[in-house]
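Students often ask why we bother encoding 3D structure as a string. The short answer is that it lets us treat folding as translation between two languages. Here is a chain of 167 residues written in the first language.
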Amino acid sequence: MELEHIKNSILDIRGKKVILDFELAKMYQVETRALKQAVRRNIERFPTDFMFELTEEEMKNLTSQFVTSSWGGTRHQSFAFTEQGVAMLSAVLNSTRAVNTSISIMRAFVMMRQWALTHQELSKRLDALEQQYGEKFKDIEQVMNFLIQKDQKETQQQQRDRIGFKK
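And here it is in the second language, the structure alphabet:
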């Protein structure tokens, strides 16, 4: 399973990183109907922090981007699976393909979490540098503004002080 495709399938809904049921069905190479059926049969394994059903409003927001069927839209609300829900799916679907796919998806979630942490660290470092060198940059900015204004005054003076014959 290609990690880039998995990363692109991870969405941020309700402040959680999730993958929708139809995307997971493609990855697991099963029908969405079969995936949802397996989940409903084992619903006790999927508390709300593992999986939740999208609201009509959320579905409308996603429909134009992702979800269309031959009937002109989806007939059922999609399930959104968090990282833990995806891990639980491998137990529910109970196939070698499901286990391997879940491993790939877990790796993608881990990569995204590491990227987010790195991003936060870089942001903190930039803030620290900005604080450390902020005063120096202000001084440089003041000097640059002074030089620009001085240059403008000299240019204006040169225009006024021209002496000689004009054509």
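Translate back mentally: The chain has one domain: 3-121. Keep this in mind for the problem set.
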